[in-house]
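Example 3.
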Amino acid sequence: MRSTIIILITIAITAAVFGFGTQYLMSQYTGKMTKDLETQVNSLGKQVNELNQVTTGSAVK
Amino acid sequence: MKPIWTILITVVLTAAIVGGGMYYVMNKNSDGDESALQAQIDDLSAKVSTTSTTSGAAVTSGAAITPSTVVSTGTAATSGAATTPAVVSATAGWKTLTDSHFGISFKYPATWPTSKSAYMTAEENDLIGVAESWASLTTDTLADKGKTRYVRIAKLSDFVNDPSKNQATQLKAVYANKSAAAAVKGTMLPPVNAATSGATTPVYIQTADGVFRGISYFASIGQDYSTTIDCVIVMTDNTNVITFHFAMPSDKASQYTMADGTVSSTFITYVQSLTSSSTESLVSEYNSVYKNIALSVTK
């Protein structure tokens, strides 16, 4: 009975530590990756806008 | 088994199951976000490439056309969530009309009703000698009273043995040279049974992907001389030819109408002076609507 309780407590603690630990590490990694990609999207969106302004401007003569 | 081993095995198994499971779930979720953002990047990269190429072509040829179908609404918006670039298509919300025979599509304002016009009679088809598709964009709303919008699609090769052969040759040269230099004033395929007068010098225009190329110009076209101004855009992919013809009364109609109701001869001079920056309703609609219809042509 006592050993069963110990095992259950061990499982709970291990699950909590590894569960939250993995989630934290993954969120750090994916957060950085997402931010990098969003920066690229913003940069490209800005380039498209600027190019279109240049192109449209050249069309009005 | 000693309790210490039992605990160690439990820890390892639990860590593997919980850690692995959490990794799998989060990795799966992030893959979706990554794919969506990567798709945006690919799409935007293609647009940058296309627009850069298009801009370069316009500069090289000295032509005054090739505006993009995408307009800027400001700087890119940034938020904590996924970012949406502030790029809005000029044809967003427009309808798409596809000609089933030629397989050519283009966009047009959603408020424009469409109808297959019976205007092009069999007799006229015989006269012109082309297998022609006729999609007439018309409207009967009061605000648009007097506006005419025609779209005609045909095969370029159908004009080889008819009186429009010369115009077909000119249009092919425009396609090949990516320049309107070869086009003469009034080039209009398929031809219309009406006189073209007071046309401006054609300017070169091409779709963003460069597949359809051609010319656009302003003119006064009609069987009876009037103060109506026309905008004609003729484009080809070297196989098909699509002609857009828009017309509406000039804002200066009263100024060029004589006391006896006839049209002043100076109206032609006025039409010939029009540019894409002139203050005329038709020119304004060219910049905001007609041009974007032509640039949306795809096959």
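The interface with chain B takes residues 3, 6-7, 10-11, 14-15, 17-19, 21-23, 26-27, 30, 33-34, 37-38, 40-42, 44-56, 58-61 of chain A (CB under 8 Å). Residues 57-61 of chain A have pLDDT under 50 and may be disordered.
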